């Protein structure tokens, strides 16, 4: 994992990699800060290609180590060419990511896989969310699998 700290997107206050998500100064969202020099040295096309056929092939670019056992592998969804939409938009080529191939048929499976891995890394045993959409499917499915 190459994340080294957290930083507020609004006021840029720095925080350690603790289980917090909101800046105490301005209530802005926190995001991970990465060691880009380390990533440039260690992350290559070959290292990504050699990874598992899931989101965890990008582990060196994520703020959490991959889980030892990968249940409900998210990611590695296919690209599907959309020729009629290409023509309608006047584009030469258009490909769409088919995220319905994820475990709960949603793009949210990727972010929930990372969040759940971080929760486990931090010793947490409960996942929850507020959602009326795809997240409301992805979180309980991931929680049940973990």
Can you give a write-up of this model?
The protein is α+β, with helices and mostly antiparallel strands. The protein is built from 5 helices and 5 strands; from the N terminus they run βββααβαβαα. The chain has helices at 36-42, 45-49, 83-89, 108-121, 135-145, and strands spanning 3-8, 14-15, 30-34, 79-81, 95-97. The strands form 2 sheets. A 3-stranded antiparallel beta sheet has the order 2-1-3, with no helix packed on it. A hairpin with a 5-residue loop joins strand 1 and strand 2 (14-15). Helix 4 (108-121) crosses helix 5 (135-145). It is globular, with a radius of gyration of 18 Å. The model has no long low-confidence stretch (mean pLDDT 93).
Question: Could you give a quick summary of the protein structure above?
Answer:
With 146 residues, the chain is of the alpha+beta class. It has helices at 36-42, 45-49, 83-89, 108-121, 135-145, and strands spanning 3-8, 14-15, 30-34, 79-81, 95-97. Strands 2-1-3 form a three-stranded antiparallel β-sheet, with no helix packed on it. A two-stranded antiparallel sheet has the order 4-5.
Arithmetic mean pLDDT: 93
Question: If you compute it from the alpha carbons, what radius of gyration comes out, rounded to the nearest whole angstrom?
Answer: 18 Å
Distance between the termini: 21 Å
- Spatially, the strands of the biggest sheet line up as 2-1-3
Number of strands: 5
Q: Ranges with pLDDT <50 over ≥5 residues?
A: none
Question: How many alpha or pi helices?
Answer: 5
Question: What gross morphology would you assign?
Answer: globular
Fraction of residues in β-strands? 5-15%
Helix content: 25-40%
SSE order in H/E notation? EEEHHEHEHH
The main β sheet shows up as: 3 strands, antiparallel
Which structural class do the helices and strands define? alpha+beta
């Amino acid at each position: 994992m190459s994340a080294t700290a957290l930083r507020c997107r609004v006021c840029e206050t720095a925080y350690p990699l603790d289980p917090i998500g909101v800046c105490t100064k301005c209530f802005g969202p926190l995001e991970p800060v990465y060691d880009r020099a380390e990533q440039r040295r260690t992350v290559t096309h070959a290292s990504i290609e050699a990874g598992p056929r899931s989101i965890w092939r990008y582990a060196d670019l994520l703020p959490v180590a991959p889980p030892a056992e990968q249940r409900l592998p998210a990611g590695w969804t296919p690209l599907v060419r959309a020729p009629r939409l290409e023509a309608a938009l006047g584009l030469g080529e258009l490909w769409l990511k088919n995220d319905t191939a994820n475990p709960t048929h949603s793009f949210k499976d990727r972010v929930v896989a990372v969040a759940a891995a971080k929760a486990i890394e931090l010793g947490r045993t409960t996942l929850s969310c507020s959602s009326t959409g795809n997240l409301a499917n992805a979180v309980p499915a991931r929680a049940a699998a973990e």
